[in-house]
Write a structure and sequence with these properties.
This protein is mainly α and 291 residues long. 24% of the residues are buried. Helix 12 packs antiparallel against helix 13. Helices cover 68% and strands 0% of the residues.
């Protein structure tokens, strides 16, 4: 392989490896914090990435100080509860220009990691991918009402502001179109297109399933009892023909709104394949719908 191409591949691999570490560390935090706290820490990490981006461009330590000051405020607020977050050492990403984070690298990664610092281009690629991931996780937290009120405020006022039965019915009414299959399909394409994570190929599917249980608010006991595991193992072809086509068309606008082109390309390819596999009658029906 051409040395220049090999260098590009190696650099891309380094970035993806570090992004996976960042997302894994972020996911690990969920067990230690309430949804409202998860949202606050997600916003904090988004701020951290913004400051890191400014620092890479301007090389001004004021951005590092701004992040550390914000982190110190959270430390004062959370006290001992802040330890799980601090243990992940997110602040160490500010030294990416000067050294290489190698805690979770393979031996091969470590060898060339010690020889090469991250370039500004690599760091910007890392920042972009992590920002996309956090934006997705933040969206899910808001959709599950994590941002409406703090958990403590909710507990303090639950008796005083108890909703009537009609209010409960409206609040808890599920979106019938947002089926579990569509949720899993969305997560599958998000992970594959932005982080190059595909359970059966590049990552342990059990780790992905644990993350999905968190995002969908589904109680997790073990992998053997997880219906999500059985469905996700078949993604993106959990369904076939017209049913799969309907799900693909349902989730496509989500990625279009986020501007994730890689996901749109993958979904469009799957749509074409699904259409080809339709029976003649179903294909005619589909053509009428598209008109």
């Amino acid at each position: 392989m051409d040395n220049k191409i090999l260098q590009i591949v190696n650099h891309e691999h380094r970035v993806i490896t570090l992004v996976k570490k960042f997302v894994r560390d972020y996911s690990d935090l969920s067990a230690s914090y309430t949804p409202a706290q998860q949202l606050e820490l997600t916003e904090h990490l988004i701020f951290m990435l913004e400051q890191l981006g400014h620092y890479i461009v301007d090389e001004d330590y004021a951005y590092c100080i701004a992040y550390l000051k914000a982190e110190d405020e959270l430390l004062k607020k959370y006290g001992s509860q802040f330890k799980p977050y601090l243990d992940k050492e997110f602040s160490s990403y500010f030294i990416m220009k000067d050294t290489v984070l190698i805690q979770d690298y393979t031996k091969q990664d470590r060898d060339w990691g010690e020889r090469n610092n991250f370039t500004p281009e690599e760091i910007n690629g890392f920042i972009y991918r992590c920002q996309v991931a956090l934006a997705y996780f933040r969206q899910n937290l808001y959709l599950n009402d994590a941002g409406k009120t703090s958990d403590l405020a909710l507990a303090d006022n639950v008796m005083e502001h108890r909703p009537n039965e009609s209010q409960i019915a409206i609040k808890d009414k599920p979106d019938k179109d947002a089926t579990k299959a569509r949720q899993l399909l969305t997560i599958y394409y998000f992970l594959k297109s932005t982080l190059d994570i595909e359970g059966r190929i590049s990552n342990s599917i059990s780790s992905i399933v644990k993350l999905i249980h968190l995002l969908t608010g589904t109680k997790f006991t073990n992998i053997q009892n997880s219906g999500i595991y059985k469905k996700y193992a078949l993604m993106p072809n959990y369904k076939k023909d017209a049913a799969l086509l309907a799900d693909l068309k349902y989730i496509r606008p989500i990625f279009e709104g986020l501007g994730i082109e890689n996901a749109l390309t993958l979904i469009d390819e799957e749509i074409k394949t699904a259409i080809k596999e339709l029976s003649v009658n179903d294909r005619k029906k589909q053509n009428k719908k598209d008109i």
